[in-house]
Amino acid sequence: MKTSHFLIALAGTGGLVACQNASSPDGGAGTSTTPERTYVMDPHSAARPEEAVIDHLDLDITVDMEGHRISGTAAYDLAPGAGSEVVFDTDGLEIEAVEDADGNALQHALGEESFLGRPLRVTLPEGTQRVVVRYATGPRAKALQWLEPAQTGGGTAPFLFTQGQAILTRTWIPVQDSPGIRFTYNATVRVPEHLMAVMSASNPQERSADGVYHFRMDQPIPGYLMALAVGDLAFKPVGPRTGVYAEPGLLDKAAYEFGNMEDMLTAAEDLYGPYRWDRYDVLVLPPSFPFGGMENPRLTFATPTILAGDRSLTSLVAHELAHSWSGNLVTNATWDDFWLNEGFTVYFEHRICEAVFGKDYADQLSLLGHQDLKATVERLRSSEHPEDTRLKLDMAGRDPDDGVTDIAYEKGCAFLTRIEQLVGRPKFDAFLRKYFDTHAFTSMTTEDFLAYLDEELLQPEQVKIDVDKWVYQAGLPDDLVVPTSDAFAKVEAELARWTSGTPAAELDTKGWTTFQWMHFLRHLPDPMTHEQLADLDGAFGFTQAGNSEVVAAWLEQCVRNDYEPAYDRLDDFLTTVGRRKFLVPLYTAMVATEKGKVMANTIYAEARPNYHSVSTHTIDDLLGWQQDVAPISL
C-alpha cells in the first residue's frame, strides 16, 4: 500500500478481502492478468482470503418457480496456495453437502448466526483446489423476489429477480461475499420451458427450447454483481452492442426509450477508455424492483419507472453504464469505501449526459443532485449517525445498506468536480483514464485511491485541496462547487409569478424538461392551500402524470398539504411501485401526522407483499413494523 500525508489507518473486525494491484490495461474480454493480491479488513464478510480465496465458480442450479426455491451446486476453484480452511458467507441457505472435486465429503460447519448470516467453514485436506457445495435457498432469501403472474406486466407468467448489493448474494449462493474478492463464473440454470433466464454474464437472445441456459462471465467480478432473472422475456437490439430485455408487452416501449444507449456507450469510451464487458444490455424488471437500476455486468437491471415515453429519464442508463468502469471495473474494496463506486459514477454519468444531450441537460442534472445532497446532509445531521455525512464510512456492526445515501453519490461527485475545477478538465480526464486502465479488474480502498490521486495528480500539479475535510470529516466543505442552471432560473421566475397570484394556467412552461418540473415541484411554498394545489393540478395534470419522477414529487407535496383528491393516485402508486427512492419520501411525509400514520400503515399492509426485501427493510423501520408480523399499534 502506498503512503501519503493524508492517509488514515484502516480499522475493522471482519474478514480480510483482496485489494489487488494493477492488471493489464489494454482491455477486452479475458485480457487481464492475475494481479498480486494484498488484503484489507472487510467487516461485512466472514471470508479469510489470506487463508483461501475463490478464483472461479461453476454454478449449476434449478429454479423452482412454484416452490420459490433455488437448488443445486456451487463449485469453486480456489486460488493457488490455499491453506487448511476456506470460509464462505451464507445467510439462510440449506447446506446439504460439501465435497472435493472427486466427490469426497469435506468436513464443514456453519458458525453462529448474525445479521451477516452464518459463516460456512470448510476444512481443506492438503492439496484441495476445488470445493463443491450442494445447497438450496431458504424461504426468506432476501436477494430473491418471487412474483406471481398478477404482479407482472404480462399477467400470465411468474417472475424471479435477484438483488445482491450489498450483502445479499449470500442468501442465494454460498460465496465469499465481499466486494474485494473477485472471481469468474460459468452457470447452468434450469427453468420452466416457457420462461427465459438471463444473468450478469453472456446472455441468450432467444428462448431455449428445453428451459436450460448456459452462461459465462470471463471477467472477474465480486459476488454482489452476481444476478439472475427468470420470466416471460424477449430481446430487441437497439445498437451493435446494446439491446433491451423486457416482458413482450413492454419491449417496443423500452427499446424506444433506450434508443440512445449506443451513443452513450461511444461517449463513455471516448472519455475513459474501452468498454471491457462485450455487450451492454438492459433488463426492464417489474415495478417492484427496489432501485432505479443495478449495474450487473453486461446486463443492467432497471426499473420500469424510467419509461416516461420521451427518453427524459434515461440519465439513469448513463449512470448504470458508467458503473462498467467505476464499480465493476474498479470496485470499492469494502462497503466503507462505497463512495469510490458511486461518486465516480455520478461524475461520469454527468459527463456522458453532457456529451450526448448537451451541457444544459447536464447542468440541470447536477443541480438536482446538489439539492439532494443538501437535503441528505440536513437529515443525517439530526439522525442517529451524523457521521454518515463523511465519504469514508465506518459501517462495522451495521447493515452496509444503511450507508447507501446521497453522500456517497453526490458528495463523492462534488469532490471529483472540485478537483476537476482545480486542475482543469483535460488533465483530470487523463488522470481518470489512467486510473481505470491501471486498476482494471481490481478493488480499491479509499486510502489507496487518495495515495494514487496525490502521486499522479495533486503533487505534480501542485494542487491544494483539503482532502481530509472532504473525505473524513462530516458535512460539506466550504469549497463545494454549487452548480448553476439557466433553465432552472426560468422555473424560479415562473414560480415567483405563481406565488404572487398568477394562475397556473398562465405560466410560461412550454418546453419544460422533466428536470425543470422536478425543480418547480421541489420549490413550491410550504404550506399550500387546497385551492393552490387544485390550481396547479388543473393546469398541469400532475396527479395523473405518466412521468414517475414528476408524480412522486407531486404526491409528496399533496401528502404534506393533505390534498385528498390525489390520495387514490397515492394508493395506486405505492401499491404498484417498489422503488425505494420514491417510497421513503412518501411514507416519511405520511408519518409526520396522525392521519398520515393511519394512511401509511393501511397502504403498506396491502403494498408490502409487492416490495423487495431491500425496500421492506427500510419501510419496516420507518413505520415500526417487525419483519413478517403485524404493525405496531398506533
Notes on the structure:
With 634 residues, the chain is an alpha+beta fold. It folds into 3 domains: 46-232, Sandwich (Immunoglobulin-like), CATH 2.60.40; 330-472, Neutral Protease, domain 2; 486-623, Serine Threonine Protein Phosphatase 5, Tetratricopeptide repeat. It has helices at 248-257, 261-272, 315-322, 339-357, 359-381, 406-423, 425-438, 446-458, 467-472, 486-499, 514-522, 530-540, 548-560, 567-576, 580-590, 594-607, 613-623, and strands at residues 15-20, 37-42, 54-64, 69-78, 85-90, 94-99, 108-110, 118-123, 130-136, 144-147, 159-162, 182-190, 196-199, 212-222, 228-231, 234-237, 242-246, 280-284, 293-294, 299-302, 330-332, 442-444. β19 and β20 (299-302) form a beta hairpin. The N and C termini lie far apart (53 Å).
Task: List its salient traits.
disordered C terminus; 3 domains; Serine Threonine Protein Phosphatase 5, Tetratricopeptide repeat; 22 strands; disordered N terminus; Neutral Protease, domain 2; Immunoglobulin-like; 634 residues; 17 helices
In short:
With 634 residues, the chain is of the alpha+beta class. It has helices at residues 248-257, 261-272, 315-322, 339-357, 359-381, 406-423, 425-438, 446-458, 467-472, 486-499, 514-522, 530-540, 548-560, 567-576, 580-590, 594-607, 613-623; strands at 15-20, 37-42, 54-64, 69-78, 85-90, 94-99, 108-110, 118-123, 130-136, 144-147, 159-162, 182-190, 196-199, 212-222, 228-231, 234-237, 242-246, 280-284, 293-294, 299-302, 330-332, 442-444.
Question: How are the SSEs placed, and which strands pair?
Answer:
Layout: E1 15-20, E2 37-42, E3 54-64, E4 69-78, E5 85-90, E6 94-99, E7 108-110, E8 118-123, E9 130-136, E10 144-147, E11 159-162, E12 182-190, E13 196-199, E14 212-222, E15 228-231, E16 234-237, E17 242-246, H1 248-257, H2 261-272, E18 280-284, E19 293-294, E20 299-302, H3 315-322, E21 330-332, H4 339-357, H5 359-381, H6 406-423, H7 425-438, E22 442-444, H8 446-458, H9 467-472, H10 486-499, H11 514-522, H12 530-540, H13 548-560, H14 567-576, H15 580-590, H16 594-607, H17 613-623
Parallel strand pairs: 3-12, 17-18, 18-20, 21-22
Antiparallel strand pairs: 1-2, 3-4, 4-9, 5-8, 6-9, 7-8, 10-11, 11-15, 12-14, 13-15, 16-17, 19-20
Helix pairs in contact: 2-3, 2-4, 3-4, 4-5, 4-6, 5-6, 5-11, 6-7, 7-8, 10-11, 11-13, 13-14, 13-15, 14-16, 15-17
